[in-house]
Amino acid sequence: MVERLISIPNDDDDNDNFQDILVQHDDNSFPNESNMNKKISNGDCMMLPLPFYLMLHVFQHHLQRLLDNNNNISSMIHSSSYGSNQDNENQPLLRRCFDNDSIQIINNYFPDDQEFNQLIRDVEQSIDNGFLPKRISQGSSGSYFVKNHDGTKIIGVFKPKDEEPYGRLNPKWTKWMHKLCCPCCFGRSCLVPNQGYLSEAGAWIVDRKLQLNIVPKTRIVKLASVTFNYSAIDRAKSRTKKNVTERFPKVGRHFNRIGLPPKVGSLQKYVENYEDACIWLRKAETLLDENLLEIFQLEFEKLVVLDYIIRNTDRGNDNWLVKQEYNDDGELNFIKIAAIDNGLAFPFKHPDEWRAYPYYWAWLSFAKKPFSDNICRLVLQQLSDMNFVQELCDELFNLFSSDKGFDRNIFEKQMSVMRGQILNLTQALKDQKTPQQLIQMPAIIMEKSRMPNAGGKGRLRTMKDNFTQSFQRKTPFFSWF
Ligand SMILES: Nc1ncnc2c1ncn2[C@@H]1O[C@H](COP(=O)(O)OP(=O)(O)O)[C@@H](O)[C@H]1O
Ligand SMILES: [Mg+2]
């Protein structure tokens, strides 16, 4: 096998104004990391004529696009109303200047949130100090525990966009098998593919807006670490730049970035001393006296409110956590819930194909009690206010529109589902229904359109929002899982 190192013109996301380097194998085998590294470290570099550079550059570009497209196609494989040609036609001809990871984020800085700035600085420092993110073994996505600057404790959970359950670089073999052996059941047809990280951050926005305080703070950041799952090409590029920089420092100075490309994803604050609800629920009955029961019931109802509004399709009892708090005398005096793993929410239609994606809390005894006055006091007034709901939609728009795959029509559908959910929830709270009764209410879609205001005079006509309410009649084939 003959290997050559070839310099090609580069316009990748680094904006390096020098040439990028690619390894080509003459026997057409896919390059693996060890043989690339071996050759690169030998410094066996050969310069080729310009037409060759261009050809390879085009090849690299197409290969990257092929990988990206492949990912999109497989994610949308049975998504009927998403990913049509029309979507492509809606894309602007001139692409916006987003980076490789498709989101406009600068320096992991949040002017309105010093607490989170502190958290992300701590995480960046820990990676610099060699305390690398560690993949969480449970779960279906590439999720990582990240540590503080001296590596003594876990402070966050990072979920990169491209390692989501159906993402291009998902590291879990179960999802790979799922994709390979059962493509017809692959993905969730009601969800926008590969936007789980937005859903995670969106759930926190809903939580904050309603002051539920059950979702740990979650925002979108960019991180790089060798422990993340990268493509062989990305690893080779980074290694090559490092070697070039070491051997030819003058040339290396032209690279903007030497290391692996940062990945965009959601970073959620790690909450301490919580346990999985499925474990805690086994001992719940023996723990809860009347006072604690009332406290827990409110926490539980907050979870119901959150899940119902975002139409969470993945609320198993392993995706929420419970913490017991004790007073100075060591008596249990408070119980708190943390709603984690909110990446499979904000559908653009109600589930209507194979699976119903039930809320698993619906089988608990707490779901058979009418909504309490406490929860009504907390959320009912806000949810009944159309301006409040519009503000919420606007905040979600700011978040979701930062993704390169953002489609305004799809987003409007997501908001139509959410508004329908809010309408049902408001009615259920007013009627003091139980959570179990709430989830049996017919699924509503509330579409927004802009109409000329009938009250407008003369040539100055104003626009007003018009809402059309409809019921989704199609129901899932299986409703028990
Ligand atoms: N914010 C958090 N605070 C504390 N523990 C967490 C947090 N997020 C996740 N975990 C722990 O990590 C496990 C896997 O996280 P999860 O978000 O469910 O990942 P996945 O998407 O892979 O299922 C959870 O069961 C929980 O024990
Ligand atoms: Mg999970």
Automatic annotation (TrEMBL):
Signal peptide: none
Domain PI3K/PI4K catalytic, chain residue ranges per copy: 130-448
Matching InterPro entries: Lsb6/PI4K2, PI3/4_kinase_cat_dom, PI3/4_kinase_CS
This protein's UniProt keywords: ATP-binding, Cell membrane, Kinase, Membrane, Nucleotide-binding, Transferase
Catalytic activity: a 1,2-diacyl-sn-glycero-3-phospho-(1D-myo-inositol) + ATP = a 1,2-diacyl-sn-glycero-3-phospho-(1D-myo-inositol 4-phosphate) + ADP + H(+)
Compartment annotation: Cell membrane; Membrane
Record-listed E.C. numbers: 2.7.1.67
Keyword check for Nucleotide-binding: yes
Lipid bilayer topology: Peripheral membrane protein
Family membership noted in the UniProt record: Belongs to the PI3/PI4-kinase family. Type II PI4K subfamily.
Protein name: Phosphatidylinositol 4-kinase type 2
Taxonomic source organism: Dermatophagoides pteronyssinus
Gene: PI4K2B
